[in-house]
Design brief:
Layout: E1 9-15, H1 19-30, E2 35-38, H2 60-63, H3 65-80, E3 83-85, E4 88-93, E5 98-103, E6 106-117, E7 121-123, E8 136-138, H4 139-149, E9 157-162, H5 164-175, E10 182-185, H6 189-195, H7 199-203, H8 206-219, E11 223-225, E12 228-234, E13 241-246, E14 249-254, E15 257-262, E16 264-266, H9 269-273, E17 278-281, E18 286-289, E19 302-304, H10 314-332, H11 343-354, H12 357-363, E20 378-380, E21 385-386, H13 387-395, H14 401-408, H15 421-432, H16 436-439, H17 453-457, H18 463-470
Parallel strand pairs: 1-2, 1-6, 2-3, 6-19, 8-15, 9-10, 9-15, 10-11
Antiparallel strand pairs: 4-5, 5-6, 7-16, 12-13, 13-14, 17-18, 20-21
Length: 472
Amino acid sequence: MSIAPGRETYDVVVIGAGPAGLAAATMSAEAGLSTLLLDENAGPGGQVFRAIATTPVTERDHLGADYWAGADLVQALRASGAEVVQRATVWSLDQNLEIAVSVSGASAFIKAKRVILATGALERPFPIPGWTLPGVMSAGAAQTMLKSSALLPDGRTVIAGQGPLLWLLAAQILRLGGRIDRILDTTARGSYFAALPHAFAFLTSPYFAKGLAMMREVKAKVQVVSGVTELAASGNGELAGVSYVAGGTRETIAADLLLLHQGVVPNVNLAMSAGIAHRWDDLQLCWSPVLDANGNSSVAGIAIAGDGAGIGGANAAVVRGRIAARAAVEALAPAAVAKLVPMAALRADLAKAERGRTFLDVLFRPAPQFRIPTGDTIVCRCEEVSAKDVLDAVAIGATGPNQLKAYRRAGMGPCQGRLCGLTVTEMMAQARDKTPEEIGYYRLRAPVKPITLAELASVPKSEADIRAVVRG
């Protein structure tokens, strides 16, 4: 592992050390290509395999066998010869395949012949009343603390939402002795019927038996309320209670911690800033990059793998990473392809890993009231823009997210729309009676992550650069 990139040019640069990035960098390096893996975390693994090499949770049953599969990926990466730089903030990627990265307070530009983006997923925004109160956080954040530091909830804890991660987190907390007082399941009752046509594929997938066993494990220990149609957090300066409606009945319960989750969506900011074409995915209700069968994007030389290419889960991400890497080897070193796994075998592996995915996407499709807020509910956390503010801006002429920036500064904070972008798109589409595709998304530019002026000033400068500014 390096503390900074050791050279200025590489055959392949992989961005993100989650399942897809680990697999892609390993295959690329094993084929003999000069390979650099850049990741912003302290260690490899991404969110799925967070802290896989350093976690204090050593009892394997607590986090589950799927988590520990990441150890084999990390071991293979370290044996491959790929150069790995952790705590590396990639803040720019252009169509010339030039990457701007900041490490240890200094920035540099790196050139690649091929780039594989493996930036993974983000949790979908869950904008309910009170979601900005201290004591309310995402399930993903809670899982990060659990894996990295073995931190567990010990106060009155409520988990609300839907999706596989919600049940996995609940199981992990309970196995480690943490406290969960209630689970509020927001899965819409109609979704079960909508998902039925896809049930056979799911029943024959790897997800079914594991998911069913995990839900039974959790339900045996925690009260689960199904069919929740309304949800709000309340408190004076910090979380004190959670109110919800289920079966037409409203109840409020005391709580010290509320964990929210309603699925994940591709992390598209870096890809969009590079000018890669994206489309609105009506099934997964998010933006996804337009890719070919090998993961290649609309920008020559840039491929996208893993959940950043469309949500498919860890197993699919690993295979997508290998497919993207194999395509890069075919382009750069055709003679080395013979010793790699055949592409047909990889495509078969991907089909197996993705079996049952449509069932999950339909079943756990978030209800409109949990995606499109109203009234004083905060939409943009960075700039404290409410749903009413967004609709008022539409009423006086804002036609899309970029015009909204001028009216309300939504999307202009440190997260650059990661926590509000989807909400804004869907709100404005509904208000203007248009599709999300017609409304569009924020226009994203470098730097896509916050950096200091000192980091920017540290970029190596040529004589031509200096003359352009100083002029003699």
